[in-house]
Design a protein that fits this description.
Helix content is 42%, strand content 15%. It has 253 residues and is of the alpha/beta class. Strand 5, helix 5 and strand 6 form a beta-alpha-beta unit.
Length: 253
């Protein structure tokens, strides 16, 4: 089991790698021996993640994953450096809290582009590089419990994350025969820097969020990252097409 968690230098791409869950994923991947490919919007934040990576190779690329052309350029660069990509963790995302009757079209398009269209662009670009990867390829799409249930004043976020869960199922249907596993991960409320900002600024009632989970606390980024890396690894070799919920019991009641 422990050997199957190890990546033995194989390349794994993590989007949104500059902070939060993405940063935690990079740390775990480094611990397990992956070549970690960090993707994010600002090199400054990626360098902060690089500083946390010990004992593993890493590469950083400043890419806006909501922009199709930038992902195509990333694919060309990585194709020149690596024969295969072992796994892609599509973690980049953002949020916008507003009722749909008050939501500007530009904000809708921005969230859909970052949270959903980016997954389309990344999967289309890198699935060909997963074919023939030792042990098969793996895609982990970091969705949310809000892709499974509704939440007040989050219509675009829920739509994007629900679309991600549905897209994951479809990709699992289409690419399982290529030995490429595709799964989504649905975290509950997680104390990422973004959520901490919401709580500290008073935008969100932290105690109310904690009460949503049966464990009466928010997840840490590490707890979510551990689940993501399990799905990416060969230890999850028969996990395919699922939406793994990591929510402290939020959605069971």
């Amino acid at each position: 089991m422990l050997d199957k968690l190890k990546f033995e230098g194989r390349p794994v791409i993590v989007t949104g790698a500059g902070s939060g869950i993405g940063q935690a994923c990079c740390e775990v991947l480094a611990e397990l021996g992956a070549t970690v490919i960090l993707v994010g919007k600002t090199m400054e934040k990626l360098k902060e993640t690089e500083a946390l990576i010990v004992g593993a190779a890493c590469e950083s690329y400043e890419v806006d994953v909501s922009v199709e052309a930038e992902i195509e350029a990333l694919r060309e660069t990585l194709a020149g450096r690596h024969e295969h990509i072992k796994a892609v963790i599509n973690n980049a995302g953002t949020n916008f809290v507003k009722k749909i009757t008050e939501l500007e079209t530009g904000d809708w398009n921005r969230i859909i582009a970052t949270d959903l269209s980016s997954v389309f662009y990344m999967c289309r670009a890198f699935i060909p590089m997963m074919r023939g990867a030792p042990g098969g390829g793996s895609i982990v799409n970091v969705a949310s419990t809000f892709g499974l249930i509704g939440h007040p004043e989050m219509p675009v976020y829920c739509a994007a994350k629900g679309g991600m869960v549905s897209l994951t199922r479809q990709l699992a249907v289409d690419y399982g025969t290529d030995n490429i596993r595709v799964n989504s991960l649905c975290p509950g409320a997680t104390l990422s820097p973004r959520v901490k900002h919401y709580i500290d600024s008073g935008m969100v009632d932290g105690k109310a969020v904690e009460e949503l989970a049966l464990l009466k606390r928010l997840a840490t980024c590490d707890e979510v990252a551990n689940a993501a890396i399990f799905l990416a690894s060969d230890a999850a070799s028969y996990v395919h097409g699922t939406a793994l919920v990591v929510d402290g019991g939020q959605t069971v009641h």
